[in-house]
TrEMBL record:
Keywords: Amino-acid biosynthesis, ATP-binding, Kinase, Lysine biosynthesis, Nucleotide-binding, Transferase. Residues 282-357, 363-424 form the ACT domain. This is Aspartokinase. Belongs to the aspartokinase family. Substrate binds at T47, E81. PANTHER family: ASPARTATE KINASE, ASPARTOKINASE. It catalyses: L-aspartate + ATP = 4-phospho-L-aspartate + ADP. One of its GO terms (molecular function) is ATP binding.
Length: 424
């Protein structure tokens, strides 16, 4: 017997038929004798609709049109998950399974005060576990918690992944299964490279890089939590027949296991290729090369909530002037240029240049730590295809390369094949 948390995303609970199908997945695990907690998202599209309603509600006279009370935003958008948790509990009961829904406040899942993007502080899983031990399935509304002021809070878009991993950590589950509309994590985006392969296992750190680089399988925060609490997390499809052979396999169900690197025996050097579109590059030319320039540039950008990514600074020839290049999301370029313009005197640069529509392609793998020449392989392969590199950054387990947008797909395919990821 094991304790399992099963999470179903919006497309998996999109209508009553799919909710019935989810109930069959749950029944399979219950029949096998496991203790089960289920975490659900809202029906797909529902949260968008709720957010839209909040945004289009008349505001207090004279208030800025974009400002609404964040506590009431949460009261509205948390309702989508309330509906699906109740519906799934009913569907399970109809199959003869003892099930009960739980809203975030009923557990409770305590969060901080950042309404709309709250972080989980504490989960008191005691009562839920007691009932699970008695054979009751807990059906938990994802995405929501209870703030310090006893008001409903939500965890930010995609937050029910985080609910699931946090609950798995709190109830010490043996596994957290994330059921979604894809059947696992792939070596790269299969829409770009049809030869992409589903990974059997991927290390937490690698998944964190893949997720933050736009492989949108999981909310990044959920991967961070899984890594900290070592929650073995499976990404698998809810659209497969719930009773197909192997679906209930405790050790090797179909899907991708995100786990500690020690569990990965045959580690490849490179695990995957990720990419992030719509990057822009900003260069400040002929800056004074003195202590405090970086702070003068990136301080005001941070205060304006502009997310700076790659930063490249040249060593100056004579110790007096240098160049600084960095990237921001394309959508933030105008704002960044304005902020830098306002601070021109404090920073002390000569000219600003910028270019949008760039793409960052990244090679990810913990095996890089112990292998030389991984970067050189990428540079050679891209050169052979005539792809120009505009900037490079590296970390222990990642090489990121900035290139022109139109070359994105070619670069992804080139890197995918140069590390042998095409071969099964
Ligand atoms: N329903 C929420 C959203 O759409 C949370 C989730 O699905 O993870 O963002
Ligand atoms: Mg999601």
């Amino acid at each position: 017997m094991a304790r399992i948390v099963m999470k179903f995303g919006g497309t998996s609970v999109a209508d009553l038929d799919r909710i019935k199908n989810v109930a069959r997945h749950v029944k399979r695990e219950v029949d096998a004798g496991h203790e089960v907690a289920v975490v659900v998202s809202a029906m797909s599209g529902k949260t968008n609709e709720l957010v839209g309603w909040v945004q289009n509600t008349p505001k207090v006279a004279g208030a800025d049109h974009s400002i609404y009370d964040a506590r009431e935003y949460d009261a509205v958008v948390a309702s989508g998950e309330q509906v699906t948790s109740g519906l799934l509990a009913i569907a399970l009961q109809a199959m003869g399974i003892n099930a009960r829904s739980w809203q975030g406040w009923q557990i409770p899942i305590r969060t901080d005060n950042a309404h709309g993007a709250a972080r989980i502080l504490e989960i008191d899983g005691g009562e839920m576990v007691r009932r699970m031990q008695e054979g009751q399935v807990a059906v938990v509304a994802g995405f929501q918690g209870l703030g310090p002021d006893n008001r409903v809070s939500t965890l930010g878009r995609g937050g029910s992944d985080t609910s699931a991993v946090a609950i798995a950590a709190a109830v010490k589950a043996d596994r957290c299964d994330i059921y979604t509309d894809v059947d696992g994590v792939y070596t790269t985006d299969p829409r770009i490279e049809p030869k992409a392969r589903r990974l059997k296992k991927i290390a937490f750190e690698e998944m964190l890089e893949m997720a933050s680089l736009g492989a949108k399988v999981l909310q990044v925060r959920s991967v961070e939590l899984a890594m900290v609490f070592k929650v073995r997390t499976f990404v698998r499809s809810s659209f497969e027949d719930p009773d197909a052979p192997g679906m209930g396999d405790l050790l090797n169900p179909p899907g991708t296991l995100i786990c500690d690197e020690e569990e990965i025996v045959e580690q490849e050097v490179v695990t995957g290729i990720a990419y992030a579109k719509d990057e822009a590059q900003i260069s400040l030319r002929r800056l004074a090369d003195r202590p405090g320039v970086s702070a003068a540039i990136f301080g005001p950008l941070a205060e304006s909530h502009i997310n700076v990514d790659m930063i490249v600074q040249n060593i100056s020839e004579d110790g007096s002037k240098t160049d600084m290049t960095f990237t921001v999301p394309s959508g933030d370029v105008e704002k960044a240029l304005r902020v830098l313009g306002e601070n021109k005197d404090k920073i002390g640069y000569d000219v600003i240049q910028n270019e949008s529509g760039l793409v960052k392609v990244s090679v990810i793998g913990i095996g890089m730590r112990s292998h030389a020449g991984v970067a050189a392989t990428a540079f050679r392969a891209l050169a052979e295809k005539g792809i120009n590199i505009k900037a490079i950054t590296t970390s222990e387990i990642k090489i990121s390369i900035l290139i022109d947008g139109p070359y994105a797909e070619l670069a992804v395919r080139t890197l995918h094949s140069c590390y042998g990821l095409d071969k099964s």
